[in-house]
Amino acid sequence: MRLSGISMLNCHQIEEFIDSYLDESLSWRRRALFRSHLLMCRECRSYIGAYKRTVALGKKVFDDPVGPPPDDVPEDLVRAIIRARDSAEK
Amino acid sequence: MEGTASEGELLRGLVAGDSAAFEQLVRTHGPRMLAVARRMLRSEEDARDCLQEAFMRAHSAIEQFEGRASLGTWLHRIVVNAALMKLRSRRSKPEQSIEDLMPNFDADGCRIEPMWQIDESVETMIGRREVRDLVLASIGKLPDSYRTVLLLRDIEEHTTEDVASELGISAGAVKIRLHRARAALKKLLEPVFEKMEKP
Predict the structure, then answer these.
(1) pTM of the prediction?
(2) Interface TM-score (ipTM) > 0.90
């Protein structure tokens, strides 16, 4: 804990609340404690910035419109799927 | 069935058991479905099996398709469920620990982490081939149980409760795995952050 205080949380204690803080589901009291920790702790501010960036990169990497086109289905697999369907039909 | 049919025509053909309609379904929707199976399963063989199982399920359930969502959305759900079944069947294999990728704290509970100041937007970053490749490779490095939760929550946008029921674990366990998966991914992406840091 970088600054002492009766109700201050340390970096380790805020770790488990990061996702709830980011999706705004923390109670007002915990949110206030979390925010007061962030105000005083640049390591956690930096960490949460990189954490948010990570989540955003993970989401973007699959929906980026300039990303690679969907993979082609190999022809042998297309044929195998069609054969399986034909067998099921019989 | 000749040429490329509209979704309505395609559906009618599928319900009627038209093999050309089924082939069109596979050729039109297969690529996206295979991409989903590949990113969830990582193994090419499992992804191929998964795609085949998904199309067989779609074939046997086509009469129950109510058209509330598009055919693509319906097939997407089917392939995600088929991939989850596959993951469940191989869950007994021991997974690599991700403890080394968790954040570090000193004895007083203070964070020991490198710090970055990055001005570049996420959109600009992801536009770079090397960043995109590293993000994809890093997600691929996560053990199945973490990668699955990350993909279902962050990419497929399923709710915590839905993921809990799909994986047969508690909502609390989903939250913990998601946090650990994101923290591990952040650690794996540190080389990118280091490179992008404002001089």
Answers:
(1) 0.80
(2) no
